Amino acid sequence: MIKCRLSSLLGDRKLKIADVARDTGINRGTLTRLYHETAERIELDVLDKLCEYFGCEVQDLLRHEAGTSAR
User: Which residues form the HTH cro/C1-type domain (predicted)?
Assistant: First the structure.
């Protein structure tokens, strides 16, 4: 299962979804779905903007966790 760590990154930096939306131009709804891990897909440009914004790599934002996989 793929887990998004956006909520952790925001918490570590004491940021809000609105801050990231304003600073990156990423739709707030997209960020909210990533934050709550309800997103079913993510555009590569969104990943790129988030990695650039947080100064991180994709593996810092998304993690693969072994276990149950939705099929």
Answer: 6-61
Orientation of helix 6-13 relative to helix 44-54, angle to 10°: 20
Is residue 62 within a helix (H) or strand (E), and if so which, with residue range?
strand 62-64
What is the domain partition of the chain in residue ranges? 2-64
Q: Tell me the pTM.
A: 0.88
Domain 2-64 fold is 434 Repressor (Amino-terminal Domain) (1.10.260)
Spatial contact of 70 and 40, defined as CB atoms under 8 Å apart: no
The arithmetic mean of pLDDT across residues 51-60, rounded, is 97
